[in-house]
Automatic annotation (TrEMBL), chain B:
It comes from Cerasicoccus arenae. This is Cytochrome c domain-containing protein. It comes from the Bacteria. Residues 101-180 form the Cytochrome c domain. The chain crosses the membrane at residues 37-55. GO terms for molecular function: electron transfer activity; heme binding; metal ion binding. Keywords: Heme, Iron, Membrane, Metal-binding, Transmembrane, Transmembrane helix. Signal peptide: none annotated.
């Protein structure tokens, strides 16, 4: 969190980057996001899961050894991340920046955790699974699936690899992962924790079991589909954008189901809100969850997204979720857990109350500042003048200056929140010191005997609700992909099965309830059904995209592959984390086109491993940067952006001018690219590659020297300039071979109905 | 810790609400009807989504994102054409050069975009000096206009046409002219041909 406050200051004052490579925004922002997700929420969730699972299963953790490996392994991963990310080792995909050896370590440790959890589940002394455990199961299986698919890559050296997906495929897979990291790493485990700790702290029964059932299954099924809402109005195929938007809207009610169950469980315990800091944190945390999950669907509406995307609004949204929901639930859990683990009283109630109010004011300042900032900048960037023919604020920097006060507000808010957490750490440390660790072994009687004999796995699959769900989803898929007759059949069958399921349920509602109670006794069956529910959305979206959207099938514009020098420059661009502030995607919106040039086509980034479409425009879009400005413009701009763009908040990249570009692994990089489908010649030798590299570098150095800007061909700056000047280069496969430059606006041929 | 079921036994449960018997580590669950507004939101969103999908993809000849934005750009170009200024007319530019409205507006635009390369006093830097009576890309006002509008990519001059639009660029030309000697420029424009 300290990293967060630091990078927030960097956005305001470029000096805070200290001209040090390992302290620049582009490198620290990945560290901030990875630490918040995997270190902070990760460790908090492991603690909550281990504590509650043992009690809900009425047995000790299966293996103390696995628990130890898990703990120390995970902390080792965090240390590795804290070292490699500032050094610029990055895969260039958001929340998936860690390099491949660490990826493997994460996967192994995660599987250790999974083994430990399911083993504990298997030897439980409790017949059926409590709702908290459902959410833990969903978390473990889905995160495994997401993490593995999004981290598939082809290593080129011990510290570098290329993702196997490129361009639009990579974009879809990345946001399928990115969005569901939010869903299954930051939401479902915390919901599970809520279902254990809130009723415990409030000493009240859970509001509604039925609601738990419905909102669990709808959440797990629907969440996975919503990823493309991060790619609205981009070159992503339209049907995926529509699916992303619609499933986000459908997600609103299931999310609020969780909020209702949390808040209404507190009903009858509201008097404790005044006295008990734990209840305060839980109530506020669940409320922030409700707020963030209302905001999410709203921002997924295409026209709202046109304003909010790439702006600070998104940043405010995620911080509402992370600080408000995750952070406050964590604080509530810690304040509840620590006195019980050390068999003592909380050191200071008033300090905990102080923490609550500091944190609350901090979040509100932060989120409100980001709303104002995001909406202001979004409106300014999209504003046009003179009947919509020109931009009202053509200078990007004008929109940046407008939000500076808000960016200071965010620093203040974030600092408040950080101080609150430091107070908590002190408070908890004092609490722990005042007591002694509890040995929590208790005798339990096994409730499992009566279960033996009624296990019939087949019956728990082939049951009316499951069969109906399967039929409805299958026919809805037919509706999505079908044309003509098969589409009509899809519509008809979906409607029929839905009505049939409702009718059947109305006639035999009690029996369905019984069936579900039975299901809860079969951990394995439950897990398998959860995997299926969570996998469908990704499969429907990703499989067609990966098989169809390939370079061979692209019509129209196709990217020209990078030369060795440009590829080297691109790897530097990725490693410096430029994508954290610069997008490479001109959306299908007139303000974007007026500002950055013709909208981006799907084929124009098809060879990009990883894709660099970006998610935030702290600086302008770079999709068509190539050839727009001179080499020496980039030269001086990277040396000190404020010489060229007064008021810019971009860091100085002075080390690009002193460090040599790494070319040792260029041959294996190009080979890896060719294996991934980029059309490089087969069997290029290292000499040939380096000859091409050197001749292009020499040309750039000479052009620069003519203008009085001196550098050497092997320096990083030369490669970066080469890359920037290549951005947006394409060949048009459809265009007749005439000697024409592409018009900015192509004639529309078939738009008339 | 007190047993939670102890509390709840004392209160009267409303109709249709059942307290499930089973207790997990002391946690019990009610089983009760879901709030009507919540169900309406859930079903409403599902029905809306299905309808939206059908309508947008099959029953209306709705445009794709690309077709829509191209149409919008054509409309914008149509307005631009209607309001276009005759930028091949030398005299028009000289008239603007003497009109403070144009010169002042041009100065503002120039300060916002041009000084990083051409200097605050037009003395040059990364870009050419604009007050040294040397006009590499032509001294005639329409030539200057063209240089700004279309850029000279191989020399590093950016094309500003889309970003600034015709009117703002004519203003900038007026401003540049105002910083130069009129008769000298007319002369070099004539000899440059």
């Amino acid at each position: 969190m300290g990293a967060g406050v630091l990078i927030a200051s960097q956005l305001n004052s470029w000096r805070v980057n200290f001209d040090l490579p390992w302290l620049t925004f582009g490198r620290l922002r990945p560290l901030h996001t990875n630490a918040a997700i995997f270190a902070f929420v990760g460790n908090m969730m492991f603690a909550g899961i281990y504590y509650s699972t043992q009690r809900l299963c009425r047995c000790r953790l299966a293996s103390p050894l696995l628990t130890k490996i898990h703990f120390f392994g995970w902390q080792f991963i965090i240390v590795c991340a804290a070292i490699t990310l500032p050094l610029g080792y990055s895969r260039g995909k958001e929340y998936a920046e860690l390099i491949w050896p660490i990826n493997i370590l994460v996967a192994v440790i995660w599987l250790v955790f999974a083994a430990n959890f399911f083993w504990t589940l298997a030897k439980r002394n409790e017949k059926s699974l409590y709702v908290a455990l459902w959410f833990y199961i969903a978390t473990i299986v889905t995160v495994t699936m997401l993490y593995v698919v999004n981290h598939l890559s082809l290593p080129t050296s011990l510290t570098h690899s290329y993702p196997i997906f490129g361009g639009v495929q990579d974009a879809l897979v990345q946001w399928w992962y990115g969005h569901n990291a939010v869903a299954f790493f930051l939401t479902t485990p915390i919901l599970g924790i809520m279902y254990y700790f809130v009723p415990k702290a409030a000493n009240r029964p859970v509001y509604s079991y039925r609601l738990s059932v419905i909102h669990f299954w709808s959440l797990v099924f629907i969440y996975i589909w919503a990823g493309p809402h991060h790619l609205l109005n981009t070159a992503l195929p339209g049907w995926l954008q529509t699916l992303g938007m619609l499933f986000s809207l459908m997600l609103w009610a299931p999310s609020w189901g969780g909020m209702l169950n949390g808040l209404l469980t507190l009903r009858g315990a509201w008097d404790k809100l005044r006295t008990d800091p734990v209840i305060k944190f839980f109530a506020a945390g669940v409320t922030f969850y409700g707020m963030a999950t209302f905001e999410g669907p709203l921002m997924s509406i295409k026209s709202v997204n046109a304003l909010s995307h790439y702006s600070d609004w998104t940043i405010g949204h995620v911080h509402g979720g992370t600080l408000g929901w995750n952070g406050f639930m964590a604080a509530g859990m810690f304040y509840w857990l620590t006195p019980r683990l050390w068999n003592t009283k909380l050191y200071s109630q008033s300090m905990a109350n102080m923490h609550f109010w500091l944190g609350m004011v901090g979040i509100l300042l932060y989120v409100a500042a980001m709303w104002v900032s995001g909406i202001t900048q979004g409106l300014m960037l999209n504003a046009t003048a003179e009947q919509g023919t020109i931009l009202a604020y053509p200078n990007f920097l004008d929109t940046l200056q407008a939000i500076r006060p808000m960016m200071w507000c965010r620093v203040v808010g974030g600092t408040f929140y950080l101080i609150g957490f430091i107070m908590m750490a002190f408070n908890l440390w004092k609490t722990a010191r005042s007591g002694s660790p509890v040995n929590g072994s208790i005798e339990v009687e096994s409730a499992m005997e009566e279960m033996v004999g009624d296990t019939n796995r087949f019956r728990s699959y082939a049951n009316a609700p499951v069969v109906y769900c399967f039929l409805i989803i299958a026919s809805a898929t037919l509706m999505i992909f079908g044309h003509g007759a098969s589409f009509l059949a899809g519509v008809f069958l979906t409607a029929t099965f839905t009505i049939a399921a409702f009718a059947h349920f109305e006639m035999s509602g009690a029996k369905w309830g019984q069936w579900y109670d039975e299901l809860l006794k079969h951990g394995l069956t439950f897990t398998v059904l959860t995997i299926i529910a969570a996998a469908i959305g990704g499969a429907v979206q990703i499989i067609p995209t990966v098989t169809m959207q390939r370079a061979d099938n692209i019509e129209g514009r196709l990217q020209i592959p990078y030369t060795p020098l440009e590829l080297t420059g691109r790897d530097i661009y990725v490693s410096e984390g430029c994508y954290n502030c610069h997008s490479q995607m001109i959306r299908t919106m007139t303000p974007d086109i007026l500002r950055y040039g013709d909208y981006s086509r799907l084929g124009e980034s098809i060879y990009d491993h990883p894709f660099q479409w970006g998610s935030k425009r702290t600086g302008p879009d770079l999709a068509r940067e190539g050839g727009k400005r001179s080499d020496e413009w980039h030269f001086y701009h990277l040396l000190n952006p404020r010489d060229i763009s007064p008021g810019s908040n971009m860091p100085n990249y002075t080390w690009l001018f002193t460090k040599d570009a790494k070319t040792g692994t260029l041959e294996s990089k190009i080979n890896a690219m060719r294996m991934l489908g980029v059309p490089y010649d087969i069997g290029l030798s290292e000499e040939e590659i380096m000859a091409e590299y050197n001749s292009q570098a020499a040309e750039i150095v000479q052009r620069l020297a003519e203008k009085g800007a001196y550098t050497e061909p092997q320096k990083q700056i030369v490669a970066v300039i080469a890359y920037l000047q290549k951005l947006g280069a394409f060949e048009d496969k459809d265009a007749p071979n005439e000697n024409t430059t592409p018009l900015p606006f192509e004639p529309v041929t078939s738009t008339q109905p | 810790m007190s047993d939670p079921s102890h509390n709840t036994e004392q209160e009267m449960l409303p109709d249709g609400v059942v307290l499930k018997e089973h207790s997990y580590d002391g946690i019990q669950e009610y089983d009760q009807q879901l709030p009507r507004w919540w169900l309406l939101t859930l079903y409403g969103a599902i029905v809306f989504s299905a309808a939206y999908w059908l309508v947008s993809h099959y029953y209306m000849s709705s445009l794709t994102n690309e077709q829509r934005v191209e149409k919008e750009m054509q409309a914008i170009n149509a307005i631009r054409l209607t309001n276009s200024i005759d930028v091949s007319n030398d005299e028009l530019f000289w008239e603007m050069r003497h009109n403070p409205a144009f010169v002042l507006a041009g100065e503002k635009t120039f300060q916002s975009f041009c000084i990083p390369c051409h200097g605050a006093n037009l003395e040059g830097g990364i870009g050419f000096n604009l007050v040294d009576s040397e006009w590499v890309h032509g001294a005639a006002p329409p030539a200057i206009y063209n240089t700004i509008f279309n850029g000279v990519p191989e020399k590093g001059m950016q094309a500003w046409g889309d970003m600034l639009g015709q009117k703002r660029i004519t203003e900038v030309v007026a401003y540049i002219l105002s910083k130069n000697n009129e008769s000298a420029m007319r002369k070099s424009a004539a000899s440059g041909e």
